[in-house]
Amino acid sequence: MVVSILHRATGIAVSFAGLGILTWWLFTLSNGADAYADFAKFVGSPIGLIVLIGITWSFFQHLLSGIRHLAMDTGAAFELRINKTFAILTIVGSVLLTALMWFYLLGVRK
Fold it and tell me: What CATH class has 2-105?
């Protein structure tokens, strides 16, 4: 039940926050260096990083939950124990994928 609600909530978060950040980024690209500098300042701030990490987690949670729902649409994972395990794995997987991605972006790549 929680993962199903998270699937809907993360879909909304990715839609609104993700598209909002993407639109802002594209808008700043078209308005020159000063506008882009303001965007880069926000993205580099602690609040900006929290927002971007949250969007990343939302994306991975929504993706893995969507895969779970796809598997269930085929008739698999309806047994209670397997269903709960699959639900927990979507949460653990999304946190792990988010951590790996941001570890790479902030640590390894520099």
Answer: mainly alpha
Tell me the pLDDT band of 77, cut-offs 50, 70 and 90: confident
Residues 95, 57: Cα–Cα separation, whole Å: 6
**Helix crossing, 46-73 with 19-30: angle to 10°?**
130
User: Using one digit for the tens of pLDDT, what is the confidence trace for 18-65?
Assistant: 999 999 999 999 999 999 999 999 999 999 999 999 999 999 999 999
Contacts of 69 (CB under 8 A, 6+ apart): 7
Residues 40 and 43: their CA atoms lie apart, in Å, by 5
Number of C-beta neighbours around residue 87 at 10 A = 19
Contact 91, 61 (CB under 8 A): yes
What are the extents of the domains in the chain? 2-105
